[in-house]
Design brief:
Layout lengths: L3 E6 L2 E6 L15 E2 L9 E2 L7 H6 L31 H9 L19 H16 L14 H4 L4 E4 L12 E3 L4 E6 L2 E6 L5 E6 L7 E6 L7 E6 L4 E5 L4 E6 L6 E7 L2 E6 L4 E5 L4 E6 L6 E6 L5 E6 L3 E6 L4 E2 L9 E2 L4 E6 L6 E6 L5 E6 L11 E4 L2 E8 L5 E9 L9 H6 L6 E6 L5 E6 L7 E4 L5 E6 L4 E6 L7 H5 L11
Antiparallel strand pairs: 1-2, 3-4, 5-33, 6-7, 7-8, 8-9, 10-11, 11-12, 12-13, 14-15, 15-16, 16-17, 18-19, 19-20, 20-21, 20-22, 23-24, 24-25, 25-26, 27-28, 28-29, 29-30, 31-32, 32-33
Length: 502
């Protein structure tokens, strides 16, 4: 071939002078340029150094592998309203972003540059999120906040002259027959809250002393009333027939708290003994040893399997009714203890083994224990410091709330008090307080009396509470909670106490 051959392909034009006599291609000084049709803004140069055109002409010039496409952005950056120097460093970049002079989007073909910096945007999101999470939830209609908190006032008041001034006494009880029983020194009265009829039930002799504690029988015996006098004797009376059933004489030990469990009555004594009586056998069936001081608080669990007791030294014991022994044993270093006398005890009706205990002066704290996980040296799962005498405790059967009644408060040195404890003690004296669980935050605080609240009892429907102030000589009823409207649905709920006011 003589002359010049031009090879046309879709990749460009190669023009070389080829000499027939030569076996090799002589390289010329001309440069061949390859123009890519896939990129309009880049042109690259290639030099043909050594090509075997015999083989190249024998096969099509379509490449075996496609040319890699460069994914370049074809849009031009929009300039911001403020011109910046071209020598931008990371430091100046951060400063520009802080003052809103530089946008995060390097290429923004459609949208104008943002007028807010990252810091302003994050601050706006943080403020919106805080407002969202700080929005107060509507109070449940069952909660004390929607009932007692909405009224802050009692619904019924009764005169109570001559009641025992001993704050460790239990002179009032509420029966499942909707009768409220009250002890006035030597006399015991009860009133049917439906008919409002007042009945004088009995009178103790002067030799027996004043009536210290009373308690109605449970759902199985709603008209049985047990009363204990200060010398230690116990009497059971049928209030419906107005006749005594049995007398248990035990003058060697004084009287503490008492509580029914079916046909069995547990009675605390001054010497630290807890006596069990069975109304069917009309005799004493057992004695529980473990305390060394007077037993003020006695409370059976909802299922009747465990008995909690608290004494004057602040020690709390749990007795297993089926096994017949104490779960809290000094030999195992399992101690449930307050720094003051313990009278207030309450078992949760919706969580098995959850027990609340309250201490008097100088303790002034509510301890919440998980008795199902008692271990050596274990402490309470929650503590609510109040620096006020705690006279009674009641769990709500309809919601996770705990009610406490209080006596007098005392000053606590600032060096020995935690900030949370100091704040929680404000305004609790002589009050009725409701705490949420498990947050233990105060929901409602109502000034119940002008003097210390000595005792309280909860209604069988779990909604109302009677409080008594011996010094003020008044008895007041407060509507604290509400029961669910759907009774049939609530019967299968663990949050509902299956009892009704007859």
């Amino acid at each position: 071939m003589a002359g010049t051959n031009e090879i046309h392909s879709e990749y460009g034009t190669i023009t070389d002078a080829i000499t027939p006599a030569c076996a090799t291609i002589q390289r010329t000084q001309s440069r061949a340029s390859v123009s890519s049709t896939y990129s309009t803004r880049k042109r690259r140069r290639v030099s043909v150094a050594s090509l075997d055109l015999g083989q190249d002409l024998a096969r099509p010039l379509t490449p075996e592998t496609p040319i890699e496409e460069i994914n370049g952005d074809r849009f031009v950056t929009l300039r911001t309203s403020t011109s910046l120097p071209l020598n931008i460093t990371p430091r100046t970049n951060r400063i520009a972003k802080a003052f809103g002079l530089l946008d995060d989007r390097v290429l923004s073909p459609t949208y104008p540059p943002s007028h807010f910096s990252d810091r302003c945007f994050r601050s706006l999101l943080r403020r919106s999120a805080s407002e969202l999470f700080s929005t107060s939830r509507a109070a449940s209609l069952l909660s004390a906040k929607a009932n007692l908190g909405a009224h802050n006032h009692f619904v019924l008041a009764l005169d109570g002259p001559g009641m025992s001034t001993d704050l460790f006494a239990s002179p009032m009880a509420w029966s499942h027959a909707n009768c409220i029983g009250v002890a006035f020194k030597y006399d015991v009265y009860f009133q049917n809250l439906e008919s409002r009829a007042v009945v004088h039930l009995c009178r103790s002799s002067l030799s027996d002393g004043t009536v210290h504690s009373i308690d109605w029988g449970g759902k199985a015996n709603p008209y049985l009333l047990a009363l204990g006098v200060t010398v230690g004797d116990v009497r059971v009376i049928d209030a419906e027939k107005k006749m005594p059933l049995v007398d248990w004489v035990d003058s060697g030990h004084g009287m503490g708290g008492m509580h029914w469990n079916g046909d069995v009555l547990a009675v605390g004594r001054t010497g630290g003994i807890v006596t069990l009586f069975d109304i069917r056998m009309r005799a004493e069936i057992a004695k529980i040893m473990g305390h060394k001081r007077r037993v003020h608080g006695v409370k059976w669990s909802v299922d009747g399997r465990h008995l909690a007791t608290g004494d004057d030294s602040g020690i709390v014991h749990i007795w297993d009714h089926r096994a017949g022994h104490l779960l809290t044993n000094d030999d195992k270093n399992i101690r449930m203890k307050h720094k003051g006398p313990v009278k207030a005890l309450s078992w949760s009706p919706w969580q098995h083994g959850l027990l609340a205990t309250g201490g008097g002066s100088p303790d002034g704290e509510i301890h919440i224990w998980n008795t199902g996980k008692i271990a050596p040296s274990s402490g309470p799962v929650h503590t609510i410091p109040l620096q006020t005498t705690i006279t009674s405790l009641h769990w709500s059967p309809h919601c996770k709330e705990l009610l406490s009644t209080h006596g007098s408060s005392w000053a606590v040195p600032q060096t020995n008090v935690r900030p949370v404890a100091h704040l929680s003690a404000v305004g609790v004296e002589n009050s009725l307080v409701v705490h949420s669980y498990p947050s233990c935050q105060r929901i409602v605080n109502v000034k119940a009396h002008s003097a210390p609240v000595g005792h309280s009892c909860i209604a069988p429907d779990g909604c109302s509470v009677f409080t008594v102030s011996p010094k003020e000589e008044t008895i007041k009823m407060f509507r604290v909670w509400s029961a669910p409207d759907d009774k049939e649905k609530c019967e299968g709920s663990d949050m509902t106490l299956k009892s009704t006011i007859r």
